[in-house]
Amino acid sequence: MLRLNLAREASWLDLALGVRVKVEPLTTAIMVAARTDPRVRNLPAGTPDEAMAVAFAKAIAARAIVDWEGVGDADGAPIPVSPEAIDALLDLWPIFEKFQTAYVAKGLELEAEKNVSA
Fold first, then answer.
1. What angle do the packed helices 28-35 and 49-64 form, to 10 degrees?
2. Most buried of the four, 6, 22, 86, 97, by CB within 10 Å?
3. pLDDT tens digits along 25-34
4. Residue 31, C-beta contacts closer than 8 angstroms, at least 6 positions apart
5. Burial of residue 8 (number of CB atoms within 10 Å: 0-12, 13-18, 19+)
6. By C-alpha distance, which of 4, 42, 8, 45 is closest to 25?
7. Closest CA to 34 of 81, 86, 89
8. Can you name the residues that pair with 31 across neighbouring β-strands?
9. Residue 94: enclosing H or E segment and its boundaries?
10. Distance CA 118, CA 104 (A)
11. Measuring CA to CA, how many Å separate 108 from each of 54, 85, 101?
């Protein structure tokens, strides 16, 4: 049975290394926008799957992350959410892996279930 979460508010997601992000629900709009993001669409033919996964996760994160805690500059001062900062955050393997499994994979699982049931 598919369980719908009708709440459309952003929620907190604990990542790693004391970082948590506030994310919008992973909706069709976010997935479609990420798929059409220039950094995803402009990947050259033959780009390895791993590089495509990173580009796709960053495109999703840029649309989904609205706030965070535990992210600071080189001096430890908190920094605001920005596309550049999100990219830098996801360049850290433990952060990327947790975001990928706890947020992105849930959307992809629903996509796979839809394809199987069709």
1. 130
2. 86
3. 999 999 999 9
4. 60, 107, 111
5. exposed
6. 8
7. 86
8. none
9. helix 93-99
10. 22
11. 14, 24, 10
Beta strands 11-14 and 20-23, pairing class:
antiparallel
The pTM of the full predicted model, rounded to 2 decimals, is 0.84
Q: What is the pLDDT of residue 117?
A: 47
pLDDT for the residue 34: 94
Structure tokens at 47: 């780009």
pLDDT, tens digit, for every residue of 65-92? 999 999 999 999 999 999 999 999 999 9
At 80, list the tokens.
Answer: 């605001």
**DSSP assignment of 13-54, as one string?**
EE-STT-EEEE----HHHHHHHHT-HHHHTPPTT--HHHHHH
- Residue owning tokens 């508010």: 9
Type of residue at 90: L
What residues does 65 pair with on adjacent strands?
23
- With a cut of 70, say whether residue 113 has pLDDT above it: no
Residue type, 107: G
